[in-house]
Write a structure and sequence with these properties.
By secondary structure, this protein is α+β, with helices and mostly antiparallel strands. The chain has two domains: 83-176; 182-435, Methylamine Dehydrogenase, Chain H. It contains eight helices and 21 strands. It has a three-stranded antiparallel sheet with strand order 1-2-3, with no helix packed on it. A three-stranded antiparallel sheet has the order 4-5-6, with no helix packed on it. Strands 7-8-9 form a three-stranded antiparallel sheet. It is rod-shaped, with a radius of gyration of 43 Å. 45% of the residues are buried.
Length: 455
């Protein structure tokens, strides 16, 4: 090699110089580094698993626990819809699903307590078989029936009461409501006797007793009474019926009646109104006076000498029996709130306080065109007696025995027109009477505490 070539090599840049090779690592060191990396990876994985488990635990227990407590707080505040939604959002956490139904149940109870019966019935109905929800539905509907009566919606109230007749556990409550819908009387003038119910549920009677029509001293738990020629019929609070007097036509065979909410006594026959709006009858069948087995939606009954009248829930009227004088010609009557069957005529009280009538008027018993502002009416043999809104009494018709001499009566709660005498119940529980007293049927001045027992 010449001198120039040697100089070129000596002057070459350092970058072009070839580095010396690093010494090879020992096998033990390489293994240690590998193990360390592996341990680090494992530790990282474990840490991630711990963090994940913690997050899951937080999501599963800690956060839902707070939301659960919030739902309970909403429930305690009576915020039922919000509480139900909060429990529902928790899904399967603890007993959240059950708490949703519990909230809805408590909400239904609150609606019931607030008198929101329609909403309560719907709320209990939506709960199906939860707790006693199924039984609470008719309870709420019973409350609604009372509310409807308060509003004057007799037809809707009656429809509910007809349905509720299937629930014996609600009998007492529904029976009391029927007392506001149907015609129950505490005093009744018969042929030659008078009967009454006392506020303690017992009965008294005076007058003719040839057939045992006054033998009522052992009657108890009464809710109403009615009387005709030689019979007396009593309605008991449990829906059964008692009767005494002439039974030659089977008119007193009422011992097997059940579910009765009103009674009416005719001449040798008896009528019972059932809680489902149908009617039953026993006794004389003259002129079809008992042909009531096809009647439905009935809320009141009244029996005359040979005909029977029924008031329907919609305010219309049906009648059956002797129609010689047209006493059953009631087809066009509407907006009626009470009916009364006399010997051979019928009177209906309208919601506006006026009267309609049909049948015989040979004694002026139907000269009722000038009567207004009436709250009650009773048709007798040949006399009609009414109560005006101020508590005074009015009467027209036959007055052979003084049976229409009621001009001085005031503070009246009920009137009952009999054969030839008339009886009135005053608001203070005393009784007045006028007319024929040949059998002592008007000897009622000593009676006290007469009236329908409190429900």
């Amino acid at each position: 090699m010449d001198t120039d070539e040697l100089k070129t090599q000596e002057n070459a840049p350092e970058s072009q110089a070839q580095p010396a090779a690093a010494p090879a690592a020992l096998p033990e060191e390489a293994a240690a580094r590998k193990s360390k990396k592996k341990l680090l990876a494992i530790g990282t994985a474990v840490l991630l698993l711990v963090l994940a488990a913690g997050a899951a635990l937080l999501l599963k227990n800690v956060l839902p626990s707070g939301r659960y407590r919030s739902a309970e707080a909403l429930l305690a505040e009576g915020k039922y819809d919000e509480a139900a939604a909060a429990f529902e959002a928790l899904g399967g956490y603890k007993d959240s699903a059950d708490r949703v139904r519990e909230v809805r149940y408590l909400q239904a109870e609150a609606l019931l307590a607030e008198g929101k019966y329609d909403e309560a019935a719907a709320a209990f109905g939506a709960l199906g078989d939860y707790k006693d929800s199924a039984a609470r539905v008719p309870e709420a509907r019973c409350g609604l029936a009372g509310q409807l009566l308060d509003r004057g919606d007799r037809a809707s109230a009656a429809a509910l009461l007809f349905e509720l007749s299937e629930y014996p556990e609600l009998w007492d409550r529904c029976f009391a409501l029927w007392g506001r819908l149907t015609q129950r009387q505490a005093v009744a003038a018969g042929g030659g006797h008078t009967a009454a119910v006392l506020t303690d549920g017992t009965a008294v009677a005076v007058g003719g007793n040839d057939s045992g029509e006054c033998e009522v001293s052992d009657w108890t738990d009464l809710a109403a009474v009615d009387a005709e020629m030689y019979n007396t019929v009593g309605l008991k609070k449990d829906g059964t019926v008692v009767a005494t007097g002439d039974n030659s036509r089977g008119q007193c065979d009422v011992s097997d009646w059940r579910g009765i909410v009103a009674v009416a006594s005719g001449d040798s026959f008896s009528i019972g109104l059932k809680a489902d709006g149908t009617a039953v009858s026993v006794g004389e069948w003259t002129e079809g006076c008992r042909r009531v087995f096809e009647w439905t939606d009935i809320v009141a009954v009244s029996a005359g000498q040979r005909h029977t009248v029924g008031l329907k829930a919609d305010g219309t009227v049906v009648a059956t029996g002797d129609n010689y004088y047209g006493q059953c010609s009631v087809e066009g009557w509407t907006d009626i709130v009470a009916v009364s069957a006399g010997m051979d005529y019928t009177v209906g009280l309208k919601a506006d306080g006026t009267l309609v009538w049909a049948g015989g008027n040979y004694h002026g018993q139907c000269d009722l065109g000038g009567w207004t502002d009436l709250t009650a009416v009773s048709a007798g043999q040949c006399q009609t007696v009414g109560i005006q809104s101020d508590g005074t009494a009015v009467a027209v018709g036959a007055n052979y025995s003084g049976e229409t001499d009621v001009a001085g009566w005031k503070d009246m709660a009920e009137v009952s027109a009999g054969l030839t005498h008339t009886v009135g119940l005053k608001k203070d529980g005393t009784v007045v009477a006028t007319g024929d007293n040949s059998a002592g049927q008007c000897d009622v001045s000593g009676w006290r505490n007469v009236g329908l027992p409190a429900s």
